[in-house]
Amino acid sequence: MANFNPKISVIMATHNGERFIEEAIDSILGQTYGDFEFLIINDGSTDLTAVMLDEYAQKDKRVKIITNPQCFGLTKSLNIALKKARGEYIARQDDDDISSKNRFALQVEFLDKNQEVSLCGALGDVINEKGEVIREKNLALSYRDIKEKLLFNNQFIHSSLMMRKIILDKEGFYDEKFKKAQDYELVLRLGRKYQMVNLPDRLIKWRFLPSSISNKNKEQQKFAIKARWLAITKYGYPKIRGLLQIILRVAWLYVPKKIKMARYH
């Protein structure tokens, strides 16, 4: 019997994601474009996540669960999924975000028509823990504008990304030295050689939680600074502009949480 590969491999990793994971999974299984496999890494969960995932796998054959023997972290878990992915395109989904039902249809149509583009993201809405929209997430759209702004901050919502697997196979997966900001390092690395765009449609609801600006999240910011350093020392991005952004981001680490939170009200 012929082995037909899906058009898309959706990859998700979760660790104790029981609170929001049903909304995330339902938003993928409810896509208008259905030619995909859904690879979910259960990364050492100790809550009810495993039970919930098994129920989905029993109901929908597109769902494939991979269980880590212990918590490996997001970066390594995503790479485990990428090694097993059979799709032409890789779609990311976080376990607490929500994809619009037409996300895949629009992204596949765009990538099929624009072979020179390595990956596409989309605009989105920021939601709180109740699922209420608290602000819009607006980013650069064109490759030119993305490269211009990429050293300032990541111009992609990780959960919105759809990438060509053939390019990831050639250029490498997520860098496992990056426990955080692994998506930022990846798009900086790919952006030096390949076109990247954001669709103007709001195709993702990105969940913002108070923990997103906690002290522990300083680790995320430190890895983002490290990604910028690689960008200017290894990936060919403008050095002066990059150094300025690194200085600003180091200063941002010491801005009080109250001031940072004000951006989301």
Describe this structure in words.
By secondary structure, the chain is an alpha/beta fold. The protein has one domain: Spore Coat Polysaccharide Biosynthesis Protein SpsA, Chain A. Helix content is 38%, strand content 22%. The model has no long low-confidence stretch (mean pLDDT 93).
Q: Can you tell me the number of structural domains? A: 1
By DSSP, the count of extended strands is 9
Residues in helix, %: 25-40%
Identify the CATH architecture.
Alpha-Beta Complex
Determine the N-to-C terminus distance. Answer: 56 Å
Round the mean pLDDT to the nearest integer and report it.
93
CATH class group:
Alpha Beta
CATH superfamily: Spore Coat Polysaccharide Biosynthesis Protein SpsA, Chain A
CATH topology: Spore Coat Polysaccharide Biosynthesis Protein SpsA, Chain A
Q: What's the Cα radius of gyration?
A: 18 Å
Specify the biggest β-sheet: 9 strands, mixed
Low-confidence stretches: none
Sketch the topology as an H/E string, one letter per element.
EHEHEHEEHEEHEHHEHHH
List keywords for this structure.
10 helices, 265 residues, alpha/beta, Spore Coat Polysaccharide Biosynthesis Protein SpsA, Chain A
Q: Quick gist of this model?
A:
The protein is 38% helix and 22% strand. The protein is built from 10 helices and 9 strands.
